[in-house]
Every structure is written in structure tokens, then in C-alpha cells.
Amino acid sequence: MEEAEMNDRADEDKEETVSSGNEAKDSQLADSATPKEKATTEEAKKPEREGKVRIRLKAVGNAPILKQKKFYIGSNERVSVLRTFLQKQLKLANDSDLFLYCNSAFAPTLDQTIGELHESFKEHTTQDLIIDYGTVGAYG
Predict the structure, then answer these.
(1) In degrees to the nearest 10, what's the CA dihedral of 50, 106, 85, 59?
(2) pTM to 2 decimals?
């Protein structure tokens, strides 16, 4: 198995959810639930994460590399939310340039939804939406 595949599998356990802060908090399980019920509920949520899209971020050019490369984001969120989140993760100023690309070529507009991009550009094997990011224009 190639080293990149091993790193991708190791990163799968370290996934975070990106949110604009407008979503309601998930309801917590009742204290009376047994550990088996809790595990079953968590397993049901984890594989699909209903209403969310898994995004894999790749650095392009001289952009800083993220330690965690996979995140979940709501399918109804806009690209602008992802861009703001990524700027915070990379510790960039709000006015600094950050370019985002789908399929290493297409630059989405900030008002497109993540769900639309996922439907059109998801990777067929993992169903991830791959977003390349850079601090300088990379693909013309």
C-alpha cells in the first residue's frame, strides 16, 4: 500500500465538521441510554452524516499544508463559508488572497453551494469533494 493511501486512511479518523454557526445544536442522547445504544447511534451517524459533504483539501503551490485534510460541511453551505474556515485554519488575514479549485482546474464562485459542487465534481471512489487551495493563482 502506498504511503499516501496510508496517510489518507489515518486522516479518516481525524475529521471535523465545518459550520457557519447557524445550525441548531444536535440533541444529546439521554443519560439513560445504554452504551450499546449510544454506539449504534454513533455508527449510524458516522458513515453518511446526513446532509453533509466530506471535503478533502489539498495545498497547491506554496500554500501551507493542513495537518487535518478532511472535513465535513453542510451541503447547503456556500463556498464562502469554506473559504472563511480555511483562512482561519491557515491563520491568514481576512483580506489575503486564497484561491479554491475543484478538480484542479475549476474555480467555484463564492455563492455556489457545496452540495451543487459535490453533485458535479465528487470523486467516484470515495465520494469526497476534492478542493485544492493556494495563496497564488495556480491553474490560470
Answers:
(1) 110
(2) 0.67
